[in-house]
Amino acid sequence: MKSRFALTLVSLWAVLTLNFLLPRWLPGDPLAALLDPDSSSYVYNAEVRGALEAYYGLDRPLGEQYAAYLTGALGGDLGRSIRLNQPVSDLLREHLSWTLLLTLSALIAASLLGVIAGSEAAWRRRSAADRLLVVTGVLASNAPVFFTGMILLILFGVELRWLPLAGGRTPFARYDNALEQVRDYGAHLLLPALTLTLALVGSKFLLVRNSVIGVLGEDFMLVARAKGLSPRRLKRHHALRNAIVPFVHHLTAHAGFAITGALFIETLFNYPGMGRLIFESVVARDYPVIQGVFLVVSVLVLCANLLADWLTARLDPRTQEA
Amino acid sequence: MQITLPQTARAIRQSRAPAAIRRLAASLGAEGAIGLALLVAFAIVGISAPLLAPYDPAAFSGAPLERPSADHRLGTNDVGQDILSELIAGARISLAVALGAAGGTVLLAVLIGGAAGYAGGWIDAALMRVVDVLMALPQLPLLILITALLGAGLGQMVLVFAALFWPGTARIIRAQVLSLRRRGYVAQARGFGAGPVYILRRHILPAIGPLIVFGLVTAAARAVVFEAGLAFLGLGDPTAKSWGLMMRYALNLPGLLLSDRWLWWLLPPGLCVTVLILALNLLGIGLEHRLDPRLKRP
């Protein structure tokens, strides 16, 4: 566990450093173009150029810039958006909650579905229903999220007109009571969350199914059955409980995949989360915001991975020895 | 000449596929065989794209936004290019990206994983820490950041994919090399005075062959997903009309979903990407079972 923690810290440092170095290494930085005599947007007025350099700290040595960047980033200062002229940290805070809402609701839905369907399929192994679920699971986990999302959008939003097409809430809507507000947010959340759930549920289902099947062959299952326990009790307390450890690890370790998927889905559905933010920033080449999203998503993923290892160690003491 | 599906099936039956192909299909299992067949189909379309496409995909061969007709089976896009031809040409781009990224990934993985496993000691420890850190980083945001800065060319994209994808495969290869190095026959070869290059070429490389194939397939699948995704986000190479970019352009048309245009403009490239990814992943599952028979579904 200690080494895992160290790895997370080192990775965090790597993320911060990449964030600092990449724009300085790679071409395409709009700021560098202002100071590069070969570029078309070179600032000829030496005084203005000097002021620009001083403002962004580019006249200082790289090490000093790095130190200033690190202290700023750790204190929550991620620069300003070029497009919106707002602090990046404000923008991120505003969009992060939408992404978390989408990702968490899809993760919860996919986990419930995956655990229930997976353990039932394992008990009815090789039945027609099991085979159908396995094929669906493989298909669902392979289709790219933006494609599944498009199909759902067209089906439920355009053809059936059941659900809103885009956005996180009805624009300019004024809610009379909290219930109305929840309904509006929920209706907008449903399609993106369903898309993400479909993308996540396949692998969870297959994992639970295979680990329950693995547990079914264990000796303690035979003993439990010989004791005359009811199938329900066997299923819940003996099979599922032992099969759940790899699932918990997968769930948290898969959070990165969920957030990545959410980035695409938000773009498709115009959902006001981090994905939408990064898409709009890419179009406007708003680098500070792209960097900010990279940083925040990385921190989320690193934390989820750490949580995965911690939970696994807590749930299964055998892994602690290794 | 039109070839229909039943004709093709009959042709395959009558041709009595060579024993080698039948053996391969059997060892890959149902999933792997389906994946391989689909992949071969895509490869044939990709290789013979200029012959198959009814028009030059870049030429303005019709009026803008034509509906499907005998002239344009999938209609035309907003500037009057034939969508079917674009679709067929898109196979080339996806496959080229997949091939390039997979090759680069595996090359790096074999070099780094092999070096770590063979050298051992502090070299191994250092390289594996790098692998740990790289694998912990979320790939999509990093890819977006790099492509946004680097600008999007297909070649650059392939290099970035390889630079990000190698750690997973390198770890597997390193473990295999580590265990091979300790085997008796390798030690004996060394005892007879075989140099490291000879041992690597003669004993290690053949033994990690299946891992290399598996690494190629998984890296290819990821490259296809990410290429389509980046193009979909508007970060792809604007000069290479890939399936993801076709979808991006289709969605850029205001009110696309309000007419039935999406049926022949948006759906076909989406289906192509999905089926190609599915084919690669199925082949991956088949290869995985072949590598480790214990994984075979109980």
Secondary-structure map:
The complex is a heterodimer of chains A (322) and B (298).
Chain A: H1 2-25, H2 30-35, H3 46-56, H4 62-74, H5 88-123, H6 128-142, H7 145-159, H8 178-216, H9 219-226, H10 231-253, H11 255-269, H12 274-283, H13 287-315, H14 318-321
Chain B: H1 5-15, H2 19-47, H3 49-52, H4 83-119, H5 121-136, H6 139-150, H7 154-181, H8 184-191, H9 196-207, H10 209-232, H11 243-252, H12 262-265, H13 267-291
Question: Can you give me a brief rundown of this structure?
Answer:
The complex is a heterodimer of chains A (322) and B (298). Chain A has 322 residues and is mainly alpha-helical. Chain A is built from 14 helices and no strands.
Description:
The complex is a heterodimer of chains A (322) and B (298). Chain A is mainly alpha-helical and 322 residues long. Chain A is built from 14 helices and no strands. Chain A is globular. The mean pLDDT of chain A is 80. Chain B is mainly α and 298 residues long. Chain B is built from 13 helices and no strands. Chain B has helices spanning 5-15, 19-47, 49-52, 83-119, 121-136, 139-150, 154-181, 184-191, 196-207, 209-232, 243-252, 262-265, 267-291. The interface between A and B is large, with 56 and 42 residues.
List keywords for this structure.
heterodimer; A: 322 residues; mainly alpha; 77% helix; globular; B: 298 residues
Helix content of chain B: over 70%
Radius of gyration of chain A: 25 Å
Fraction in helix of chain A: over 70%
Helical run tally of chain B? 13
Principal-axis shape of chain B: elongated
